[in-house]
Amino acid sequence: MPDFLTRHIKDPGQRKLATAVQKGAYEGLRRALTMSRQEVVAEIDASGLRGRGGAGFPTGRKWSFIHAREGQSVYLLCNADESEPGTFKDHYLMAFDPHLVLEGVAIGAYAIGAHQAYIYLRGEYASVAATLGEALSEATDAGILGPNCLGSDFDLRIALQLGAGAYICGEETGLIQSLEGKRAYPRVRPPFPAVHGFLREPTVVNNVETLASAARIMAEGAEAYTKLGTKQSAGTKLISVSGAVERPGIYEVEMGYPLMEFLAHEAGGIPLGRRLKGIIPGGTSVPILTADEAAPLTIDYESMQSAGTMLGSGGMIVFDEDTRMPHALLRIAEFYAHESCGECTPCREGTGWMAWVLRRLLAGEGRPGDLELLLRVGDNIEGRTICGLGDASVQPVRSFIQKFRPEFEALEPAGMDWPAWQIHGHGPRTGRFGPPVEEAARSQPVEGSPDYVL
Amino acid sequence: MLTGEGLREIETTRAQEDSSRHALLTALRVVQRERRKVGPEEIVYIAGLLGLSPAIVEGVARFYDQITDTPTGLHVVRVCRGITCYLRQSERIADDLKGFLGIKDGDTSPDGKFSVRLVECIGDCDHAPAGMVDDRFVGPLDEQALHTIREI
């Protein structure tokens, strides 16, 4: 397996500055500081590095959007919120090679002209933040970071911020809001963060793995990176695999590596000789693949796209033949219902509805047309929200129902004569997690009675 | 209301940043850690400390899952119910754990030592069913782990 990013991650003492430097830490930063900002951006652009947080946006291009006017401060925010279910790669990267992450942050900051960078970690990663914090003060004391980084005239202050438990803080504008001490309600774009970000100043938000990759690219040169991977997906990707596999964990794979080979060799196959039922390739926000769909795919952006899904965060979740898909989907739907921040009505209400309809189907209280209702609620969320959480919540619901339909149909009672409006009309009215009240409302048509239950 | 260490942590953050609003998240975390809740009294205290309106502090406090308005136990045990852990029976494990720690109603033990909370994915999926005690990852939550937790 390639070890472009994880070469020293298992070395003992890698968290200590002396050991890390011996192994080549901060060489990428040293090289970057001898170049102009534009040259660093051009080098990352040439490497073909794409954002590793999920969206896969070209990193060099993102950096090139920053044009600070006189008197403006520029900020680099490192997104270490990592809350996508099934994703735990940044956790390991920060915990075992903190200097690589810090080096990446410094390079990113230099490239965009930021003198202040923040690493925003999810609240659960307090122990990781402690490790990072120790590495940061060691590197600052050694003059590598801080004022006059490595003896250059580049000043950089890096600060760590811990979150307090909200998935939406991983959304880039949600992260900015949270860092500003607000509810993490995502912002309407445009204006994009590159123009109007943290404290209304030009801001770049990059994922941990992206910045760590940038550090290695600056050390080895863009060419070393483009030699790896495919044409549209250069380099390597960290895959965090969990679920029905023998060896769950983090693996660095070269882009273009066959998915089935990865499952069989790296992940050790499926326990107890069971068969594969489905794979979510990049966190629960991307559509699931059936075993047949997954068979010919390779691990890279374009192959996943050709199958109608996404590489996403690389948080791979494997389901074996014993998995009851409706139960799994309910859990996923509950996640989005819980984590919807409540800013946009379609998502706030819709995610709760999807979970609630699934719950009643599984409780044996389903109604004819419930599957169509689920899909229709999804259609009414998608594309109608400020951020991607709404869209993300629809992907698992739609793909699970579409691809494992018989299991869902078995839950749906047939032949009952429900009024059409109740199936295809506006449906039962309910509070976010409340029971249906349309029967009660119809049998007691009292003026002014509340039509919802909280 | 806070220890000197907690106050210093808030003041350091505040001094480094351009606006005191920025220190709010840190302040909420520190108060939650030391007081085990951020109730009305704490909200007024933080508002005074940072020069913000209590309404703003409350609005932000109630947004975040780890900031609670009722006191948690001395140790907070988080049991992950993310999809991977859920498929490894983590909800049942949380129930077992509650019984094991003598928690009958709600999620805090009568002696106030433990709170057990089912939480969304905590990012430790290769140790499913994953769990945390305070800031420490303790998965997989097998029988041995349950004993370790009880002995804390």
How would you describe this protein?
- The complex is a heterodimer of chains A (454) and B (152).
- Chain A has 454 residues and is α/β, with parallel strands linked by helices.
- Chain A has 3 domains: 17-226, Rossmann fold; 236-320, Ubiquitin-like (UB roll); 325-443, NADH-ubiquinone oxidoreductase 51kDa subunit, iron-sulphur binding domain (de novo design (two linked rop proteins)).
- Chain A has 20 helices and 11 strands.
- Chain A has a 5-stranded mixed β-sheet with strand order 6-5-11-8-9. In chain A, strands 3-2-1-4 form a 4-stranded parallel β-sheet, sandwiched between helices. In chain A, strands 7-10 form a two-stranded antiparallel ribbon.
- In chain A, strand 5 (236-243) and strand 6 form a beta hairpin.
- In chain A, helix 14 (325-339) packs antiparallel against helix 17.
- With 152 residues, chain B is of the alpha+beta class.
- Chain B has 2 domains: 4-61, Arc Repressor Mutant, subunit A; 75-151, 3-Layer(aba) Sandwich (Glutaredoxin), CATH 3.40.30.10.
- In chain B, 45% of the residues lie in helices and 11% in strands.
- Chain B has helices spanning 4-16, 24-35, 40-50, 54-61, 83-86, 90-100, 143-151; strands at residues 75-80, 114-119, 131-133, 136-137.
- In chain B, strands 2-1-3-4 form a 4-stranded mixed β-sheet, covered by helices on one side.
- In chain B, a hairpin with a 2-residue loop joins strand 3 (131-133) and strand 4 (136-137).
- The longest helix of chain B has 13 residues, at 4-16.
- The mean pLDDT of chain B is 94.
